[in-house]
Specification:
Elements (H helix, E strand, L loop, with lengths): L1 H84 L18 E2 L7 E9 L4 E10 L7 E17 L10 E3 L2 E4 L2 E5 L7 E4 L3 E3 L3 E3 L3 E4 L3 E3 L4 E7 L3 E3 L4 E8 L3 E4 L3 E2 L2 E4 L3 E4 L3 E7 L29 E5 L5 E7 L2 E4 L4 E6 L3 E3 L6 E5 L3 E3 L9 H4 E2 L50 H6 L4 H5 L2 E5 L5 E10 L2 E12 L10 E6 L25 E2 L8 E4 L2 E4 L3 E2 L2 E5 L2 E4 L2 E9 L3 E3 L2 E5 L1 H4 L4 E4 L2 E4 L14 E3 L3 E2 L4 E2 L10 E5 L1 E5 L5 E5 L2 E4 L2 E5 L1 E4 L2 E4 L2 E4 L3 E3 L7 E4 L2 E5 L16 E14 L1
């Protein structure tokens, strides 16, 4: 019995040992299978990743090539337009005689690039064209992209050589008040003017570097400044230590006082009054046009009313100051002089002298009336040619001559204003509309359509950014995104980051503090850089956008509402439909100033003009505005969309048009440059412009007066520096020509 039990135990032990061996083998087999599965999975994952990367790279190449094709097509259309214009008058529909729907456009020299005309709208002057690119054909990396573009032919009216119609380095369409220090720094041999549609006043300041002031109203200069010329449709008043070297011309009256130096020509349709005590240049006056509709400067305050002669007519020239004189005087009325010298005078009526001296020479048409009878001189006939009854110390009105000396003074013609009925800036419409009907047939938002970043608030109150014509790290990005944040964690609540672009928000998140849904990888990132990831750089409150921090992505930024450029350095054009104000320390580089990479050729050498560029050496790495960049030729497209790349700041919008094409309802358009600003580009306010603090603008500044504000003002220290500028940038022109040019631009695009 015991032996049987022992045998059974030995048998069971042997079976257990055999089972343990099988289990070990099974474990080894399972482990091997697991490792095989892991290896195969990793291999598959790596293969998929490689395929994805290859597809991504190939797609990126085809998209970039498509945009290259878009620029090739634009230049081809421009070439056709210019060729046809050689024998024809400019015509917005001129290309329709050359192109037809369905036509294939020749693109030679670039393999895998094709273009075809889809449709033509001759009424809107728009051409829909598909550009298709192929990359790595007949390989695993083969890809293609089709870009549908709308090209528009338009006209830009150039006045004084500029597409925006601005006429001088400072151009204001309403009254302008200059205070503080104003300086224009220009290259040698160049001159720049101030144009004002309205009155210009100065006081307690210094103006340097300005060649001429031209105003369609009246001009009052009361500062220690130097000019070449002053022009006005109304009166001109000059006081203080002002020097005018060439000419003072007024359709109204001219009055000078203090230590004014005016050695050039002084001409008025009205009268010329001097209490200066200085010898002036060549004076001429007609003595009429006294009741002009502009601000009266020479008949108010200390000037009093205009003095009249024995015939109750105003004196054409009234030299009231002791020692006031002129190199010559020509007047179609009478002249009065206290004690000054005139080398050559031609007076059609009377000459009234308070204190006679031997330094008056010329001709008098009627009576020489000398108040001081004790100062008669035997040399008088040789000095002032006269005949019988010429001398009259008693101011007898009957002591006249029957034949007058004929004196003619050319009548000055008015300076033309800018034509407010046809010229305005609008973030919605081009600066100069062709006609009201043409404007109304366009898209309502051409500047919005060419912007790379369109900032709006949707009906629910959430901030949105529409991105167009932008590539991020080589991938074309388009669409509308929310501006949101990613919340911090329980362990680190301060890890919250702002201003990410995301397609979805957390359910129930508020418009004042929206949160992006999903992990950070769902977002394409942020187009701005604040002082830190935890500091917002784009905010919105009560109709005003605020940008602050380090910088934004380069491009054209369009804001629906007001804009506060609080602080930072920005590259591109900032456009607001409302008003723009700057605060803090701000720098803005216009696209054409920043250039392709921040550099430009100067005297045969490559010189840096900006810390960053628009297409390379970017402020936000990887974010490229493709409508401004020719990536194949490594060039900036500087003439894009009405030359918007020359501008740093643009403000204002027209809400409604009148039948004649003028703006009947204007919104915003005020620009205030405050605190410390350096603007590398032109500044155009649709309504009014004011400066304060320390402002330096490397370009032209202007205000078009589209709204209700009646006055512009420059105060503090305002410097316009037009020296040493990059070749791609046009800060201002000052020619006196106007012409109409046609252009071709991309107004809309999308991938098919």
């Amino acid at each position: 019995m015991k032996l049987a039990i022992a045998n059974r135990m030995r048998y069971s032990s042997r079976i257990a040992r055999n089972q343990q061996g099988i289990a070990t083998i099974l474990i080894i087999l399972l482990t091997g299978l697991t490792m095989t599965a892991v290896v195969l999975g990793l291999s598959s994952f790596m293969r998929a990743t490689q395929e994805q990367g290859l597809a991504l790279q190939s797609q990126s190449q085809s998209q970039i090539k498509a945009w290259t094709g878009a620029e090739v097509v634009r230049r081809y259309l421009d070439m056709l337009l210019q060729n046809e214009k050689q024998n024809k008058e400019p015509n917005l529909s001129i290309l329709s005689t050359t192109l037809q729907s369905g036509d294939a456009l020749p693109i030679d020299g670039i393999a895998g690039l094709f273009a075809q005309v889809v449709s033509i709208d001759t009424g809107a002057h728009e051409y829909v064209i598909d550009v298709t690119s192929e990359s790595a054909k007949n390989t695993r990396a083969q890809s293609s992209s089709t870009l549908r573009l709308v090209y528009r032919i338009g006209e830009e009216i150039t006045n004084d050589g500029q597409s925006d119609g601005l006429r001088g380095v400072l151009d204001f369409r309403r009254n302008l008040d200059l205070r503080g220090g104003i300086e224009v720094k220009v290259p040698p041999g160049q001159t720049y003017d101030i144009w004002v549609d309205g009155d210009l006043t100065t006081g307690g300041n210094s103006i340097r570097g300005v060649n001429a002031i031209r105003a369609t109203g009246s001009v009052s200069i009361g500062s220690g400044s130097t000019f070449e010329s002053l022009y006005a449709n109304g009166d001109i008043e000059v006081t203080g230590g002002v020097t005018v070297s060439k000419s003072i011309m007024a359709m109204g009256n001219i009055c000078v006082n203090g230590g004014v130096s005016g050695s050039g020509e002084i001409q008025a349709n009205g009268v010329v009054i001097s209490s200066s005590g200085q010898k002036l240049g060549a004076i001429s006056s007609r003595g009429d046009d006294l009741d002009h509709p502009f601000t009266k400067l020479c008949t108010v305050g200390s000037w009093g009313s205009l003095a009249v002669d024995a015939y109750a007519n105003v004196f054409g020239v009234d030299l009231r100051g002791g020692g006031s004189g002129a190199s010559s005087v020509k007047t179609m009325k009478s002249m009065r002089v206290l004690s000054g010298a005139v080398d050559n005078l031609q007076v059609q009526d009377d000459l009234v002298v308070a204190n006679w001296n031997e330094n008056l020479h010329g001709n008098v048409g009627k009576v020489l009336r000398i108040k001081d009878t004790n100062r008669y001189n035997a040399k008088l006939p040789q000095q002032v040619q006269a005949q019988a009854n010429d001398l009259d110390a008693s101011f007898d009105p009957s002591a006249t001559r029957t034949s007058n000396v004929p004196v003619q003074v050319t009548k000055l013609q008015p300076l033309q204003d800018a034509g407010l009925s046809g010229l305005y800036f609008s973030a919605y419409w081009p600066v100069v509309p062709e006609t009201a009907e043409a404007v109304q047939s366009k898209s309502n938002y051409p500047y919005q359509s060419v912007a790379n970043y369109v900032f709006e608030v949707n009906p629910d109150g959430y901030r949105t950014v529409t991105i167009q014509a932008v590539s991020v790290n080589g991938i074309a990005v388009s669409g509308t995104y929310f501006l949101g944040s990613y919340p911090g964690t329980v362990q680190n609540p301060y890890a919250k980051v702002f201003d990410y672009l995301c397609t979805q928000l957390v359910a129930g998140t508020s418009a004042s503090d929206p949160s992006c849904a999903g992990p950070v990888t769902d977002s394409i990132g942020t187009l701005c850089r604040g002082y830190s990831p935890q500091n917002p750089c784009i905010t919105y409150k009560n109709g005003q956008w605020t940008i602050q921090g380090n910088t934004l992505a380069a491009g054209i930024h369009w804001f629906d509402g007001d804009l506060n450029v609080s602080s930072g350095t920005f590259y591109g054009t900032l456009i607001a439909t409302g008003n723009i104000v700057t605060s803090g320390s701000t720098k803005v580089y216009a696209p054409n100033y920043a250039g392709y990479d921040g550099y430009s050729m100067k005297d045969g050498q490559k010189k840096q003009y900006a810390p960053a560029g628009m297409c390379q050496n970017l402020p936000i790495e990887g974010w490229i505005p493709t409508n401004l960049c020719n990536l194949t030729q490594h060039e900036l497209i500087h003439n894009f969309a009405f030359g918007v790349g020359n501008f740093a700041l643009l403000a204002g919008s027209c809400q409604a048009l009148a039948a004649n094409g003028s703006c009947s309802q204007y919104h915003g358009g005020d620009i205030q440059l405050q605190a410390s600003n350096t603007i590398y580009g032109r500044v155009l306010a649709g309504n009014s412009l004011s400066t304060g603090g320390g402002t330096v603008v490397h370009g032209q500044i202007g205000a078009l007066g589209g709204g209700e504000t009646q006055k512009n003002g420059l105060s503090g220290s305002t410097t316009l520096d037009l020296r040493d500028i990059p070749s791609s940038y046009t800060p201002s022109t000052n020619t006196n020509t106007s012409s109409t040019n046609t252009f071709i631009q991309v107004r809309w695009s999308r991938y098919l």
